[in-house]
Design a protein that fits this description.
The protein contains eight helices and seven strands, in the order αααααβαββαββαββ. It is an alpha+beta fold. The radius of gyration is 33 Å and the shape is elongated.
């Protein structure tokens, strides 16, 4: 057992040194005290037998009964939490993750009960997320499939002609379905760590200009928000060390999310500044929309997490874009979050230098 720190008061240091002897803080001490008490009872009764007229056989029987009672009491106190954990484990095997163990002990069994409860809570959270994932995926898949089916049924029934406009509507639904499937695959690969990073040093301004050019083209290919302007503000001569493909995925998701929630004729600004370390990057994406309440700022980075502005849902998409962005940034060893902003929403990500990139 490690010695207590020197600054701890003498009383606490003494109590810490005596902890192995405390029957309420150690199972080993409890068993040791059981043996001591049993031997003590037997010794006292034998001494009483020598000084009285009680026969030794009677004293032996009384000593055995007393020792058995003490042993039964200690054994029950030690076995009760194990039995409760066994019952809770069987309930969890049947899918009931709400069971908890109520053990008011300070020894190793108490520590085991606390660890068991934490494990049960984690499993309950994982099970809840799994159910939410299935429900959300089902909902998101059903929407484009239903739209595509309606268009095709109208064409088959003769309600509408298979003209370019009708086919464009069907194509948009198919593209939405394809984006969802691609995002699910990307998120699965990122979570499992099977996406390798190929970091390299590159100039930030031409790189982000190309990314925003692609976003401009997306706005012109039937994006619902063609009125939003994109603006780039980069420190001249800025370099970064990262995986351009993964960073492209992050910036594209952030810009697309900002465009969706910008007001009419709004502006989305992409800022890039050097970080503290060499080749590090601080990148921000700002919109002029309603913003994200502080209580919702962690939720939007969860799978299918959707922040709200108090009136309507903030995210009208699949709810996977920011989750993918977070995982890609985590692979680089960086951070991403919602920063304070006077107006709209400001997403800030930081990427460290090449020494921090995760393989």
């Amino acid at each position: 057992m490690p010695d207590p720190p020197p600054g701890v008061p003498l009383s606490r240091r003494t109590w810490a040194l005596l902890r192995p002897l405390d029957p309420y803080r150690s199972v080993k001490a409890a068993l040791g005290w059981l043996v001591i008490v049993s031997v003590g009872i037997t010794t006292v009764l034998i001494l009483m037998a020598y000084r009285s007229d009680i026969e030794l056989q009677v004293i032996a029987i009384i000593a055995i009964i007393a020792s058995l009672l003490v042993t039964q009491f200690v054994a029950h106190s030690l076995a009760a939490p194990l039995l409760e954990m066994t019952a809770a484990s069987r309930a969890m095997a049947r899918g009931d993750y709400g069971r908890r163990v109520h053990v008011a002990r300070r020894d190793e069994l108490g520590d085991l009960a606390d660890a068991f409860n934490r494990m049960a809570a984690d499993l309950q959270a994982v099970d809840r997320h799994r159910k939410e994932l299935v429900a959300n995926v089902s909902h998101e898949l059903r929407t484009p499939i239903a739209g595509l089916r309606a268009v095709l049924e109208n064409v088959v029934d003769g309600v509408s002609e298979a003209d370019p406009q009708t086919m464009a509507t069907a194509l948009r639904q198919t593209e939405r379905l394809g984006r969802l499937v691609e995002q699910l695959l990307d998120l699965s690969r990122l979570e499992n760590g099977v996406v390798p990073l190929s970091p390299r040093r590159f100039q930030v301004e031409p790189y982000l200009s190309a990314v925003l050019d692609g976003a401009h083209m997306a706005l012109g290919r039937g994006h619902s928000r063609t009125d939003v302007r994109l603006r780039l503000d980069v420190t001249p001569g800025l370099h970064a060390h990262a995986d351009p493909e993964r960073l492209d995925q992050v910036v594209t998701n952030l810009v697309d999310n900002a465009v969706k929630h910008s007001p009419r004729d709004g502006t989305v600004t992409v800022l890039a500044r050097p970080g503290i370390a060499a080749d590090s990057l601080v990148l921000e994406v700002l919109d002029e929309g309603p913003g994200i309440p502080p209580a919702q700022r962690d939720l939007v980075f969860e799978r299918f997490g959707r922040g709200t502005n108090g009136v309507t849902q903030r995210d009208g998409g699949t709810g996977l874009g920011l989750a993918i962005a977070r995982w890609a940034v985590d692979l680089h060893g960086g951070t991403i979050g919602v920063a304070e902003s006077i107006r709209g929403c400001r997403i800030r990500l930081t990427l460290p230098g090449n020494s921090q990139v995760k393989g």
